[in-house]
Amino acid sequence: MASIRDVAKRAHVGATTVSRYLNDNGYVSDETRIKIEKAIKELNYTPNELARHLFRKRTGIVAVLVPDVSHPFFGEFVKHVESKLYENGYKTMICSTTKEKNSEIEYIDMLNRHIVDGIISGVHTLEVGAYLNVDKPIVALDRYFNEKIPVVGADHYHGGEMAANCLINCGCRNVLQFQGAKSVNSPSHERHIAFERIMKMNGATVCTVELEWNRFEEDYFQQVVQEIFRTNPEIDGVFGADLLAIAYMKEVIRHGKKVPQDVKIIAYDGTYVTDIVSPTITAIVQPIEELAAESVRLLMNRIADISNLEQRVVLDVKLVEGESTCVQK
Amino acid sequence: MASIRDVAKRAHVGATTVSRYLNDNGYVSDETRIKIEKAIKELNYTPNELARHLFRKRTGIVAVLVPDVSHPFFGEFVKHVESKLYENGYKTMICSTTKEKNSEIEYIDMLNRHIVDGIISGVHTLEVGAYLNVDKPIVALDRYFNEKIPVVGADHYHGGEMAANCLINCGCRNVLQFQGAKSVNSPSHERHIAFERIMKMNGATVCTVELEWNRFEEDYFQQVVQEIFRTNPEIDGVFGADLLAIAYMKEVIRHGKKVPQDVKIIAYDGTYVTDIVSPTITAIVQPIEELAAESVRLLMNRIADISNLEQRVVLDVKLVEGESTCVQK
């Protein structure tokens, strides 16, 4: 395989000139440029990417950490992050963190060891300590780690308000909401605060069910939903993440009741799964593509200049009506 | 930051000895080993991973190429591949190929440039030429590229037979099957050959609808399904990939007909989406976790020894009954 020295020899220039050309740092005359390009072509020279990255102290790789890439929300988020990173000349490394408790610590370590240039973290870790004192390019999705790590997320508070108003307008009086583990310090909890506030303001009863940490399996959702349905027959409205909302609807139908006639259901996230079921589910839709775009934008800024600290990006959500709630007047 | 030379100085040994220790190639006495470890600890030395990989000519990274990571089949496949690679000490780079036609060529180029050590390719590329003459560690999921690239896949032929027998046992006489683009050279087409054969053997009529290349959007599925439903009112049985089977069921229900009473539906892949809809869908279930495990196993063998050419792994599928077909006698 041809080396940089072979290219230099063939082009009748110095190896440092070829290096300047390859790394695009420093003056190379047009005449020399043409000679180098000709030599590269003739020798079928492939620059050793590792060596070049070593030189630049960049690897061109960003790690994306999510609890589970097969979850519809995180799958779509990863897809868009990868696409945006690609546009910025970066490759995407992926890590699902449910499989291994400490793998995210390993990725932070990889940042320190120059294997990745940055991290976009959408994990639900409880060990925030690992992120403390890390002053490297990290951006968090819906997660408060420390004041040096910017947070991108949707306007969950507004989402919770909209969900509550929707159920109130449909006449619900006894509602249930599913909430993620409260031990995770996430802005996404705000939707439950807003939901409860509006509901109580309107004299409705709210039952909040907290889910176990980092569990996304359908079996678990089914088990939770069956237990709740059995012990709370008075429930006439439900608010929960897509797969939980769907699991609850299935349970309602299984008992010969009807959605939306007997129970109204509104989902949070609004991924494609809310659209494939019958009836389709009304949802507060998160702007996943924009969340991905903003996460990448903030990370690129941090990689270019670590002192760039745009702290918080909040994107709006919208209510998309399906067939699982009444038509609003 | 401490360098390898700082470690050597502090340990009173030569830099090459420290290098031997770090890369585990060559004799280092126990006494020296202890001195080096003490120096590393005292100096808080972090070896530059890039430099070490450069030395070993390995990056510890494998790229996984799929059409769309947010698709339920590919999402689950990627999740398990990542988990298995992690167990083998490898990190996973991800690339969805629907976004950019030629990005997979770029990844093959990355193999040549030593950025990744191997590729697991589940893409539906039409440009197989890019894979020709590539004698590097690549493993294909359900795809024939060339005789040097091993193929992992399910026993699709058996899957097609089981699907057909299921619909025949339910009394279907006019069935429809959705098939991926035939221009893609994939063993997965075998299921349609088997399906048609069994159906015709039993005197049933089969209509095969070929889908456009590399399109996985719900809007497209809906549009296809609406057109078919309108022009083929006699259809009493449907066989298609999960999301198409679900889209068809939705269309049936939308027209006031019933599943399974009026139309029986059987899906292929059997990911979680077939379980979240009502009625749940009978499916030929692919062993996604095993497909991932075998893909990783074959790739590890190829990375260790490029002459290792286990060519073909075929894994069995199973029929899981849902509520969308009649109960079989």
UniProtKB/TrEMBL annotation, chains A, B:
InterPro entries linked to this entry: Cro/C1-type_HTH, HTH_LacI, LacI/GalR-like_sensor, Lambda_DNA-bd_dom_sf, Peripla_BP_I
Coiled coil: none
Signal peptide: none
Domain HTH lacI-type: 2-56
Keywords: DNA-binding, Repressor, Transcription, Transcription regulation
Domain of life, source organism: Bacteria
Keyword Transcription regulation: yes
The UniProt record lists the keyword NAD: no
Residues annotated as domain HTH cro/C1-type: 3-50
MF terms in GO: DNA-binding transcription factor activity; transcription cis-regulatory region binding
Pfam families in the record: LacI (PF00356), Peripla_BP_3 (PF13377)
Name of the featured protein: LacI family transcriptional regulator, sucrose operon repressor
